[in-house]
Structures are given as structure tokens and as C-alpha cells.
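User: Teach me something about this protein's shape.
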Amino acid sequence: MPPASDAARPIADTARCPCLSGDVYGECCCPFHRGESHAPTAERLMRSRYSAFAVGDPAYLMETWHPDSRPGDLELDPAIRWFRLDILGRTGGGVFDSEGTVEFEAYYRVRSTAPDAPSTSGSQHENSRFRRTGGRWFYVDAA
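Assistant: First, the predicted structure itself:
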């Protein structure tokens, strides 16, 4: 897998992982982002994809998007900062499953480009579908 893009936001391996699992980045989502291993469950893939948004790694997002639904390209908005992930529910997606869903809410802030304008914040609520293909989990789409 290609390394994180030049636009990626650096994060130390010893920093708290953006997915808020409670682990440090170097022991949580970083090995997935570096291509050292693959997420064993749909939830772990979802968390690692959220972290990829948080650190600005579109290459990882594309790599983990199922080929049947993957877009031609993906650009991340550098003004958006993702800061919190809440997992609300899940179905399937375990180590012996071939499909699963993860319902989540992800919170963000948008930095204003206008001088003296305030930042805005919001959240994205989604129920993501995942499929295991060739022994690897992939994001399919939002249901």
C-alpha cells in the first residue's frame, strides 16, 4: 500500500489514536495505515478509516474501499478537522463473518478561510456496510 500522502497530518506513534480506542496510534490504526497488517474486523476497519480522515490519508481510504463502489479519486478538505468518533452499533463484521455494518457518529470542525470568521462544527451519522473479500475487510457504502 502506498504511504500516506504528503498532505497527511503528522501524528506520533505514541500519541492517542484518533479513533479513540484508548490505544496509542502506533499500536492501533497506524499499522493498518502503513500496510503492515489488515483490520481483523469491520469495526477495526471503520476506526482505521476514521483515523485516515483525521490524519489526512486518502490513499488508505481508497485502498480500503471495495472495488465495486470505490470512486475514481478522493480529495480530503484540509479545512476539516475530525476530532471525535462514537460507535453506536454494529452487526456482523467479526473475524468469521463476510459482511457487517458499523453505525457511528463522527464529529468535525471546519476552519473558516475568511479572516475573523468563526469555525463551524458538525457531525456525520452513518451506518456503513463492510464486506470481506479475499480475507480482507473493505468499506462498501453507507446504508
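Now, about its shape. The chain has three helices and four strands. The chain has one domain: 25-142. If you'd like, I can walk through any region in more detail.
User: That's plenty for now, thanks!
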